[in-house]
Write a structure and sequence with these properties.
By secondary structure, the chain is mainly beta. Helices cover about 5% and strands about 35% of the residues. It is built from two helices and 15 strands. The strands form three sheets. The protein has a nine-stranded mixed beta sheet with strand order 1-8-7-4-5-12-11-14-15, with no helix packed on it. Strands 2-3-6 form a three-stranded antiparallel beta sheet, with no helix packed on it. A hairpin with a 4-residue loop joins strand 14 and strand 15.
Length: about 280
Amino acid sequence: MMNRTFSRRATLQALGAGGLVACGLPSRAAVGGLPSAAHADSSPEWDRLRERLFGSRPIEAGAQASAVQLIAPLRAAYGAWVPIKIVSKMPQAEGLQVKKLYLVIDKNPSPVAAVLDLTLDVGQADFETRVRVDEYSHVRVVSELSNGQLHMDSRYVKTSGGCSAPPNRDALHLIGKTMLKLAGPMKLNEPNAADVTVVHPNDTGFELNQRTLVYIPPHFVRSIRVSYAGRKVFDADLDFSISENPTWRFNFVPHGPGELRAEVTDSRDGQFVGTLAVA
């Protein structure tokens, strides 16, 4: 596996064992015992994680100052399947581009859900996926630009149980099947939306087998690397905070016919590949 400038495992170890607990009750509560927070608030978990990820670097935040927007529901009916959308307010350009995106869920057992390493071939750094939210928590995206600036947006999402909800185990024989599709007709030399989906339970280690009453060992997609015509589009370093059957909508810029390719690795070193001929 490729060397990474950011190590999810090292970060979690630095946070300490207290960050790896099963679903518990939130520590902050409003009147009546229900958790409450504003979208722009910080949290003790975020304060610790921010220092470890970014040190003392300033982070632009707020609707006017930030170059990134996060769209997420205030309340989600099912904590294991929370849709989110990341919208970049700038295109990928030679002079200035989004270099990385960090997706963080403050109160999850594994708070760093994804780190995306992007290229100019993304065209427009917008992404959609679904995440697990273990308890009422802020969900954050931090955009790191090529000039070193950091921009953030966050949403407070009210749901729970996302890390302990049992996955659908009816298609285990299909684990690793990787599918790519375009969202519409191909347009040359401009961003085209596409989806990559990996059939995978993304077991967290906190799910209880309802028959054996034994916890299901963790088994999840750890990375997805997407290329087009042999050129990197983006790499995604992932954890189990991404929902079962991980799906990402992304953009890529085709300059001619080619093969859209996704290379997938899971936490048991399973290797899977999906391809799509684009003409």
